[in-house]
Amino acid sequence: MHLQSFLLVIVSLSCGSLPPGEVPFPRSILATVGMVTAWWILCHVAARTTARQVAADRIDPIDGARWLEKQLEIFRWLAIGVVVMCLGGFGLAANLDTATGPLGSIIQKSMFLQSFVLLLPAVALSAASWSAEHRYGVLMGYVDHGVKNHLASIVQSFRGSMAWLIVPILVLLGLADGITQLPLSETQAAITMVVLSLLFVCAGLPWLISRVFKTSPMDPASQTWIHSLLTATGLRRTKIARWQTGGNAFNALITGFVPPIRTLLLSDRLLDELPREQIAMVVLHEAAHLRRRHMPIRMVAILPAWGIGTLITYAAGNASWGTTAGSIAGIVLTMAILRLVAYRTEFDADVQACRLAEQIAHLVEDVPSDYDAASRALSDALLRVTADHPETRRRTWLHPGVVDRIDFVRRNRIAPKINSSTAGTIANPA
Predict the structure, then answer these.
(1) What GO molecular function annotations does the UniProt record carry, in alphabetical order (predicted)?
(2) Which distant-in-sequence residues (6+ apart) come within 8 Å of 94 by Cβ?
(3) Which residues, other chains included, contact 374 with Cβ-Cβ below 8 Å and sequence gap of 6+?
């Protein structure tokens, strides 16, 4: 997930801890709607102005698209401040605990509904930029016009970005609301919530992600070959699916880490355009993430961050700034820890993928036969998937730069690790 989307979601939810305000609830809603409307107009004005510049031959179409994307990227970052203004300055978040009337009482009793309201401005502001992108495509003749296509484009953008975080959070909060309605003690309710959360992360989340993304069966030959790759690495009980992106994305991911629910998703463009040796290294990179327990490590790593945030809130006592300070500390520490852990696990997955290739090359065809050949194939894959967008080769919040990854893999070819208790062994299926 892009750092901007992550911050937009987390900051929106954190605003729920703001102290009660003095702005009436109807005025908060009206001010928020007005700000969101103005944001939509601003984004669409940027798209229309850029399209007119291209139509008048003042700028090249490619430069126009890049210029619009830069403008919208700036708007997306500014949206974080706008969300704080809507939820905090206008008092929308602060009024959730004091809202009156039948609807207000329902919202106060539901964490799901409160979070839904808190997230609405963030989603609406993001949708403005997605809508502007689609509108620019219509004006340039790149995409078909029509309300249905426009809405489908916005939904697709949401599914590919914020939905990763928003949908699971809302599902978990919905479960929490349901548990509060059961005749259970506080201890029983807490235990039930922990059990359901674990079940959701292990089983429900992979199923949910498979529904969020559009997938289809893979062709039999590729299915058999990729299955043989996973079987050779000890991950035989893993589902495989073709991720339909309309030919727009080179991507791969594994959802879940418990067999046989876990699923390997490979995007259509990756499968159609990369040679088999490079596809093999992408698959082995994802297999390495799974074998080295990288996802659980990332999840556990952020617990201390929010633990420190909670301690800050507790130490502040009844001070009005305590909860806000704790939330800010939790967000900052989460970003720092996730970056550190994400970089380490990405580097580790690259190295482990090359070592896995060396170990299973005699078992599966079209797999590089030694570490050097595997590192070259992985490097070529990294360069190919970023060729259309060179800016993606730079380091980001959760991914090191392509050059750094290639250099790290090459530097670690000496004295490879054989097997570790973390990685497991090739012979034992997971």
Answers:
(1) metal ion binding; metalloendopeptidase activity
(2) 18, 19, 20, 21, 23, 28, 87, 88
(3) 281, 284, 353, 354, 355, 357, 358, 367, 368
Specify the residue for token string 């989460």: 334
Q: How many other β-carbons are positioned within 10 Å of the β-carbon of residue 365? A: 11
Cα 288 to Cα 81, 237, 346, distances in angstroms: 38, 15, 9
Cβ neighbours for 281, distance < 8 A, ≥ 6 positions apart: 353, 354, 357, 368, 374, 377, 378, 381
CA dist., res. 65 & res. 16, Å (int)? 37
Query: 368-374 long-range CB contacts below 8 Å, 24 or more apart?
Result: 368/277, 368/280, 368/281, 371/413, 371/416, 372/413, 374/281, 374/284
Cβ-based neighbour number of residue 116 at 10 Å: 16
pTM for this model (two decimals) = 0.78
| Inter-helix orientation angle 371-385/322-360, to 10° | 130
Q: Is 239 helix (H, G, I), strand (E, B) or coil?
A: strand
Per-residue pLDDT, 228: 95
Which residue do the tokens 């993928």 mark? 353
3-42, pLDDT tens digit by residue? 888 889 988 988 887 766 677 778 888 999 999 999 999 9
Where do the structural domains in the chain lie, given as residue ranges?
A: 3-211, 215-298+334-411
| Residue 236 in tokens | 């035989």
How many CA atoms lie less than 13 Å away from 133 in the CB half-sphere? 20
Helix (H) or strand (E) holding 103: helix 101-108
DSSP 16: G
Q: Which of 220, 234, 219 is nearest to 364 (CA)?
A: 234
Dihedral sign from CA coordinates of 217, 249, 153, 204: positive
Over the stretch 343-360, which tens digit does the pLDDT of each residue have? 999 999 999 999 999 999
Measured over the CA atoms of residue 58, residue 60, residue 61 and residue 62, the dihedral's sign is negative
Does residue 282 contact residue 303 with C-beta atoms inside 8 Å?
no
Cα 353 from Cα 283, distance rounded (Å)? 8
Q: Could you tell me which residues are beta bridge partners of residue 420?
A: 424
Buried b (16+ CB within 10 A) or exposed e, 393-418: beeeebbbebebbbebbbebbeeeee
